[in-house]
Design brief:
The complex is a heterodimer of chains A (140) and B (298). Chain A has 140 residues and is mostly helical. Helix content of chain A is 71%, strand content 4%. A two-stranded antiparallel sheet of chain A has the order 1-2. The chains are: A mainly alpha (140), B mainly alpha (298). At the A-B interface, helix 5 and helix 6 of A face helix 5, helix 6, helix 11 and helix 12 of B.
Chain lengths: 140, 298
């Protein structure tokens, strides 16, 4: 079955970035969303708090990147570079989280899975976009 | 009677097929010369063109232009106003030239990028150093060597270990500056050999390995600039401040993207790979390096 016949695979990037944005408002630890954690951390140590906004920033940047390639396939290199920047924010966040909160990783909730799946979908989207031929624009 | 009809139909379809093949052959033959492609581009860009304009742009003799205009008879037509216009085939030829020429060429320095982002990245690319068919010269080798020494030194000063294009501390390992320095050099060669292996095994491209090696250190230039800035934040002890910390993270991301672009540019130039394939290699290695760091931190 050729999956490309039924869905435009370029949409996985949009789904991935939406998942990243949604993860910001979903529970990560003990029913706390990242927004809650951001507010709690802001009152304790403001220098660490901005880190908890990185999935949202990453999601927004990747959304712009993936939308760009849907708008016009000629912008695929731009889209990939914007996605690199977006994923960079997420990688810094996930690295800090894993190195700091590794003991609690076993008790993570839906927000964490949303974020990880979202980032993986964006990665797949980058590979898909790079494999796309310019001629596909007329066919898709 | 039926047989006759069948034969006539067959003859007709054969003629149409031959006609199509002729048009196809004419189409590709017309595109087979640099001047003819330029004529189509000139007419396509303006919508029409006069003979005088073509002569002015092409800078060839009148006879040559007439010869090429005759060859392009299926792709262009001269209207009553004596100007040349593209036919339906000509418009297709023009679209084909515009869409495919960029992807066929491996010299990305000559590509015409319209977007602000790509123009910016092209300005940040040392195009005079990363250039194909340019034998390694002493100046480039010295420059690369300096980058290696600087990179190793600032890795040692920051206490960071490089993993391809990423830098991280490993708290479990005792801080020995010389070890950081040597690890940077080791990372440089491992990174180069990994790219060489990927290009040769997966893409069957040997390219210009020596030229690639002689300028490979330039890929680390943005990372080294970041290490220098990071070191000053450390020395001044201001990286604990909120906005400095965020600024440090943001410039790290931007400088990494710059490094990835230089890597992509080098692979495309020296290995003659399409920019898309070069980006895939950069992406796989970058996130591969990140995975190693993540595993080590756990």
């Amino acid at each position: 079955m050729n999956i490309r016949k039924y869905i435009d695979l370029r949409l996985i990037g949009i789904v991935g970035s939406c998942l990243l944005i949604v993860s910001q408002f979903s529970s990560w630890y003990s029913g706390n969303t990242l927004i809650n954690i951001y507010l709690i951390t802001t009152s304790v140590a403001i220098e660490d708090s901005f880190l908890y906004l990185f999935p949202l920033i990453s999601g927004i940047i990747c959304f712009i990147g993936t939308f760009l390639v849907l708008y016009k396939l000629d912008y695929k290199i731009n889209s990939v570079i914007i996605n690199f920047i977006g994923l960079g924010f997420f990688l810094i966040f996930i690295f800090e989280i894993i190195s700091k909160d590794f003991p609690y990783i076993s008790s993570v909730e839906i927000g964490f899975y949303f974020a990880v799946i979202g980032a993986l979908l964006i990665l797949l989207d980058i590979l898909n976009v790079l494999k796309l031929n310019n001629n596909l624009e007329e066919g898709s | 009677m039926r047989k006759g009809v069948k034969i006539n139909t067959e003859n007709k379809s054969t003629k149409i097929k031959d006609g199509n093949q002729d048009s196809e052959s004419n189409f590709y033959y017309a595109l087979g010369h640099k001047i003819r492609r330029r004529i189509i581009e000139l007419i396509g860009e303006n919508g029409f063109s006069s003979f005088t304009e073509l002569k002015k742009e092409l800078k060839v003799s009148t006879g040559t232009i007439y010869h090429h205009l005759d060859t392009l008879s299926t792709l262009i037509k001269q209207k009553a106003d004596k100007k040349y216009y593209l036919t339906e085939f000509g418009i297709r030829a023009y679209d084909s030239i515009r869409n495919n020429l960029g992807s066929l060429s491996f010299d990305i320095s000559k590509k015409d990028y319209n977007s602000f982002l790509m123009k910016g990245l092209m300005h940040l690319t040392p195009k005079r150093i990363i250039v194909t068919n340019n034998k390694p010269n002493l100046l480039v080798i010295t420059f690369s060597f300096m980058i290696l020494i600087l990179g190793g030194t600032f890795c040692a000063l920051n206490g960071l270990y490089p993993f391809f294009l990423l830098f991280e501390t490993i708290p479990e390992i005792l801080y020995v500056p010389l070890f950081n320095f040597l690890f940077f050099i080791f990372n440089f060669f491992v990174f180069f050999l990994t790219i060489e292996a990927i290009c040769r095994i997966f893409y069957k491209k040997k390219g210009d390995s020596m030229e690639f090696l002689s300028t490979f250190a330039i890929i680390f230039l943005p990372s080294i600039l970041y290490l220098i800035i990071h070191y000053f934040f450390l020395v001044l002890m201001i990286n604990e401040f909120t906005f400095i910390g965020i600024f440090d993270n943001i410039i790290m991301i931007i400088f990494q993207v710059w490094s990835l672009w230089l890597l992509t540019y080098s692979i495309t130039t020296y290995k003659r790979l399409k920019i898309e394939n070069a980006l895939i290699i950069s992406l796989v290695l970058h996130y591969g390096g990140f995975s190693i760091i993540l595993l080590l931190s756990i």
